[in-house]
């Protein structure tokens, strides 16, 4: 093997500035977050409250109150959802998916409420007709 060594650069004298430090790349700028429309979130929450109210309306004491709250929250979900969709379109905010989910779930639950009401009306009519023949 050879005794060849690479030359070592001389050290700068004390108090003399050394070579400039390398500049690191600046971090990428963060994209601004779109703010979620509050009405869209309200619509989605109202849409989730309605099925919970239907389930909890089976509890005897709470049933009367919650059976009224369930269709009401579905209607509010549709109203808030449509308001949110128009605001999102005008302002360019986020939350379109939440608003659409609130509107769709609200319409489905309104339809469900109407079917339940019709079934209960037929049951009540049948019971009243059965009691009047006795």
How would you describe this structure to a colleague?
The chain is mainly α. It has 3 helices and no strands. The longest helix has 37 residues, at 96-132.
Overview features:
134 residues; 63% helix
In short, what is this structure?
The protein has 134 residues and is mainly alpha-helical. It has helices spanning 38-56, 63-91, 96-132. Helix content is 63%, strand content 0%.
List segments where confidence is low: pLDDT < 50 over at least 5 consecutive residues.
Answer: none
State the secondary-structure class: mainly alpha
The total strand number stands at 0
Fraction in helix? 55-70%
Q: What's the story with the biggest beta sheet?
A: none
Mean pLDDT: 85
Shape: rod-shaped
User: What percentage of amino acids are in beta strands?
Assistant: under 5%
Chain oligomer state: single chain
Radius of gyration: 34 Å
Give the helices and strands as they follow along the chain.
Answer: HHH
Number of helices: 3
| Terminal-residue CA separation | 120 Å
Helices and strands in order:
Blueprint: H1 38-56, H2 63-91, H3 96-132
Helix pairs in contact: 1-2, 1-3, 2-3
